[in-house]
Amino acid sequence: MHSFFLGLSRVMAYMGGVMLTALVFLTCTSIIGRELNGVFHYMVSNDMMSGLGQFFLDLGVGPVNGDFELIETGVAFAIFSFLPLCQITGGHATVDIFTSKLPTKVNRVLRMLSEVAFAFVLLLIAVQLFSGMQSKMRAGTTTFLIEFPLWWAYALSLVGAVAAAIVGVYMAITRLREVVMGRSLIPSEMGAEH
């Protein structure tokens, strides 16, 4: 069972990584286009190879239209895509100055309580994203520049949020079972080094 949820978390993280890579290329393309647009406008306005400059301007060389809107949507998806892996590997930042001195049973209970809290918050986020998506669908809200429906961004983020909520509930149940059974079923922190 754990390997299934770990696999799901990794797939989501890979999707988030692909999205971030695409956003890097989009950003670079937009910046280069913006700079070249300025150069070509300078060439045309100062009669320096103005025919060449006008040729590229007519081709549409310039910044990517709506790049900020696309980046906002993509980053939101990427953040939600990384949450399941962070949750299942114990990669969230923790401060354990006091708890490291406590007995194992107490730490197991504290870990279970934090997993239950995370599961609740992740479920709440997913429900609110779904509600927001429905609201944007009903209102027909679009982005300003490229005018794609805003609910698409919500739907894309909802995929990661639902996966994070599912993994969060699984981890809460697993940690609860650990408290009841009195032994560890999965490692407490497999991910981040603090």
Please explain how this structure is put together.
The structure is a single chain. The chain is mainly α. It has one domain. 74% of the residues lie in helices and 0% in strands. It has 5 helices and no strands. Helix 1 packs antiparallel against helix 2 and helix 1 runs antiparallel to helix 5 (150-181). The radius of gyration is 24 Å and the shape is elongated. The two termini are 27 Å apart.
Question: Mind sketching the topology for me?
Answer:
Layout: H1 2-45, H2 50-59, H3 67-88, H4 104-139, H5 150-181
Helix pairs in contact: 1-2, 1-3, 1-5, 3-5, 4-5
Short description:
This protein is 74% helix and 0% strand.
The percent range for helix content is over 70%
Low-pLDDT stretches are: none
Largest sheet: none
Strand-pairing-aware structural class: mainly alpha
Work out the number of β strands: 0
Mean pLDDT value: 90
N- to C-terminal separation? 27 Å
Instruction: Give the overall shape.
Output: elongated
- How much of the residues is beta strand, in percent? under 5%
How many domains make up the coordinates?
1
Number of helices: 5
Could you state the order of secondary-structure elements as H and E? Answer: HHHHH
User: What radius of gyration results from the CA coordinates?
Assistant: 24 Å
Short key terms for the protein model shown above:
74% helix, mainly alpha
